[in-house]
Amino acid sequence: MDFRFTEEEEAFLKEVKDFINRELPPDWPGEDPELPHEDALDEIYQLGKEIRHKLATKGWLGLGWPKEYGGQGAPIMKDLILQVETVYRGVPGVDYYGLALVGPSILQFGTEEQRERFLPPITRGEVKWSVGMSEPSAGSDLFSLQLSAVEEGDYFILNGQKTWQSGAHHADWCIVYARTDPDAPKAKGISVLLVDLRSPGITMRRLTHITGLAAFNEVFYENVRVPKENLLGEKNGGAAVAFAALATERGYGVGLLYNAKRDFEQLVQYCKETCINGQPLAKDPLIRSRLAELAIEIEVGCNLRHRLHWMVSKGMFFVHEAQQLKVYGANVAHHMANLGIQILGLYGQLDEKSKWAKLKGRMRHLYLHQVVASIGGGSSEIAKNISARVGLGLPKG
């Protein structure tokens, strides 16, 4: 496989880099895969809104989507370049859920009317989406969800609760997984609905992340009326949408890897500039060895990402490869956080508010946030089970 870009792709890469350098503050520390800073801090959220509108003006939201739905019909490599650069630099304002999960689901399962109604506002940067999957008793076991959707005339009436919804308080719409047949087997009684979060009967409560950032939400539904035309796919066919989402959510693993790559480069620079007993940390044999091991892990992950996107470009089935990348990215995030804390020592426990903090408290935040890496987007254990069953053909035990 030849990883080199064509001249056209190199030109696009330069254009993307120039845009990011122009729009981000010079000392921008970067965002994490689920953008908790953006959803928790108003000033970053406002910056993200401005950048999202500028991305829309350039036609870079839904870059690879068909032109009739607001996209550019661009080749997969352009979409890859844009995704990698925005993740690597931690650009706020990119509607991850709308672009990576909701949009592809509507393209695959939606009616023509739904595509024309919901996709162009995403590409114009006019709406922000969230995803309503997890519930208090249905996290990794999605098909145990209990939020009910009962038919009543031209509507579904929703009652129940979702939790751990990233950025729902800033979102306009939500793709909600609900139980439409309580008597059917767990996986066969679920449907997917597109829900306006401004609907009467919806209330939210912010949840505080382990890092101290209130980026998540509990969302409560009390007799919420959703028009039947907002049903995505077949009634009781939500399992198919969920499995497709597992494949299209390849961006989570990519995000973990490229955040680790950015943090790794900052840590290497710190080691070059920081001396103990008159010698830079970078010359310590043990530290050099540990950094080299992590550099190899990151490079392997980037190659796995190349392979995955190549499979996407060929229209190949890639569910278990996406899950493998997610697990691998979570492991790299763990290793990055642990090494950073070990090298910084007690300084690594300080947040950005302390005058003694190193790397603006990044390692403390990363160390706490990496706990989520193996849980968010589906736990690593579930991802391994999917890879075992789908990729290796092993029986369900």
Explain what the structure shows.
The protein is of the alpha+beta class. It folds into 3 domains: 7-94, Acyl-CoA dehydrogenase/oxidase, N-terminal domain (Butyryl-Coa Dehydrogenase, subunit A, domain 1), CATH 1.10.540.10; 130-236, Beta Barrel (Butyryl-CoA Dehydrogenase, subunit A, domain 2); 250-391, Up-down Bundle (Butyryl-CoA Dehydrogenase, subunit A, domain 3), CATH 1.20.140. Helix content is 48%, strand content 14%. The chain has 12 helices and 10 strands. The strands form 3 sheets. It has a 4-stranded mixed β-sheet with strand order 1-4-5-8, with helices on one face. Strands 2-3-7-6 form a 4-stranded antiparallel β-sheet. Helix 1 (7-23) packs parallel to helix 4 (76-89), helix 8 (251-273) packs parallel to helix 10 and helix 10 (319-344) packs antiparallel against helix 11 (362-373). The two termini are 37 Å apart.
